[in-house]
């Protein structure tokens, strides 16, 4: 973030407060252009055409046939969808429920408590209500909380909420579990790419990978047909592990020209490939655009856990995946440089990773 632009360009308005005060209209700033609004191109809960659900139960087991079949399902899902759900992933379902509930309680604390953690665009850590710093931008219908787990030099529990009681310990345990799970999955991705199982993790920085959490809070919206909870974007980082709301759907994944509404499986995580894995895999795996719709009668909470490369190492296609037939598609770039785009301009579909290709 440049030193000249250390703060938000306009006073921050909490979407939750707007939701409480608007009964049948929303401010113009939240009305999307007609081409971006949720529309008839959305498909609702088409079970036959939805992101795959993969049972990870035997992934690390002794039965080779079972683990090979799981790896194959992951490989197909990465190529066809860039998104999949995982069950039997090893994270305690009770912890998942408790963590999501604690975050819901946080967003229902009095505003003056939450404001103690108000964030700035310098690091984005804390309680926020917009992504990007463009003055006059059309905004998304959501508030969020952003915090760091790794590297340890960035982890500062004082920047985490202190309420509800004992939440910091719980959020910490959740982070440890998710780092472990992401480690297992990037190994699977490495193997599926024909690489040694450690290659992707090492390319991410080995022991020094980054991990952070954004908790999204989507308040009720009186005009859901005009707004989005989160605009279309691909995730700038490596891989995302989303814990969705257990009751309220909202995530939509782009499939060709359609938006597919994901139907979350109970106690599953929704996994998606981010831009850095697209780059490292030389576009064998692609990050996929997604967005969030809102609704008028239910709020929604989701926890997006981002597994990212160490922020200051150049990320470029892995050597073994660059061949005469498939030359390197991307120039090296650090994740620090890369994420400035979304931090400055906000979510913009897949324009960043695409522009990287053409900038070669
Ligand atoms: O809320 C969701 O379902 C998705 C959130 C998301 O895409 C994100 O936080 O990047």
Automatic annotation (TrEMBL):
Gene3D superfamilies on file: B-lactam Antibiotic, Isopenicillin N Synthase, Chain
Pfam families associated with the record: 2OG-FeII_Oxy, DIOX_N
GO biological process: defense response; negative regulation of defense response to insect; regulation of defense response to fungus; regulation of jasmonic acid mediated signaling pathway
Cofactor(s) required, per the database record: Fe(2+); L-ascorbate
Classification via InterPro entries: DIOX_N, IPNS-like_FE2OG_OXY, IPNS-like_sf, Oxoglu/Fe-dep_dioxygenase_dom, Plant_2OG-oxidoreductases
Classification via PANTHER family: OXOGLUTARATE/IRON-DEPENDENT DIOXYGENASE (PTHR47991)
Transmembrane segments: none
The entry's keywords: Dioxygenase, Iron, Jasmonic acid signaling pathway, Metal-binding, Oxidoreductase, Plant defense, Vitamin C
Family classification: Belongs to the iron/ascorbate-dependent oxidoreductase family.
Lineage of the species this protein comes from: Eukaryota, Viridiplantae, Streptophyta, Embryophyta, Tracheophyta
Official protein name in the record: Fe2OG dioxygenase domain-containing protein
Polar residues bias locations: 36-46
Bias (Basic and acidic residues): 26-35
Chain spans, region Disordered: 18-46
Ligase keyword on record: no
Reaction(s) this enzyme catalyzes, per UniProt: jasmonate + 2-oxoglutarate + O2 = (1R,2R)-12-hydroxyjasmonate + succinate + CO2
Domain annotation Fe2OG dioxygenase: ranges: 208-309
Any one GO MF annotation of this record: metal ion binding
Highest taxon of source: Eukaryota
């Amino acid at each position: 973030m440049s030193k000249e632009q250390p703060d938000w360009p306009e006073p921050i308005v909490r979407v939750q407060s707007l939701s409480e005060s608007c009964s049948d209209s929303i401010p113009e700033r939240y009305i999307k252009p007609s081409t971006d609004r949720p529309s008839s191109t959305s498909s609702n809960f088409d079970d036959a055409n939805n992101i795959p659900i993969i049972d990870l139960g035997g992934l690390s087991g002794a039965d080779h046939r079972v683990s090979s079949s799981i790896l194959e399902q992951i490989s197909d899902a990465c190529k066809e969808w860039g998104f999949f759900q995982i069950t039997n992933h090893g994270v305690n379902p009770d912890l998942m429920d408790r963590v999501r509930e604690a975050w819901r309680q946080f967003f229902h604390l009095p505003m003056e408590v939450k404001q103690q953690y108000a964030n700035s665009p310098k690091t984005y850590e804390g309680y926020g209500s917009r992504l990007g710093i463009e003055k006059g931008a059309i905004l998304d219908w959501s508030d969020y909380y952003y915090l760091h787990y790794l590297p340890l030099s960035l982890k500062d529990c004082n920047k985490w909420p202190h309420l509800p009681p004992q939440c910091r310990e719980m959020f910490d345990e959740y982070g440890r579990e998710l780092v472990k799970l992401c480690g297992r999955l990037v190994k699977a991705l490495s193997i599926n790419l024909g690489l040694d199982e450690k290659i992707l993790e090492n390319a991410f920085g080995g022991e020094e990978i980054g991990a952070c959490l954004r908790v999204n809070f989507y308040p009720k919206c009186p005009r859901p047909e005009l707004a989005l909870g989160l605009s279309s974007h691909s995730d700038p980082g490596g891989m995302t592990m989303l814990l969705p709301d257990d009751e309220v759907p909202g995530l939509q994944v782009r499939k060709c020209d359609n938006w597919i509404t994901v139907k979350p499986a109970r106690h599953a995580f929704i996994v998606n490939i981010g831009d850095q894995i697209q780059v490292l895999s030389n576009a064998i795996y692609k990050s996929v655009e997604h967005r969030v719709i809102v609704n008028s009668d239910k709020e929604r909470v989701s926890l997006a856990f981002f597994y990212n490369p160490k922020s200051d190492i150049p990320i470029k296609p892995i050597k073994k995946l660059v061949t005469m037939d498939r030359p390197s598609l991307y120039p090296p770039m650090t994740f620090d440089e890369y994420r400035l785009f979304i931090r400055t301009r906000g979510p913009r579909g897949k324009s960043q990773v695409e522009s990287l290709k053409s900038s070669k």
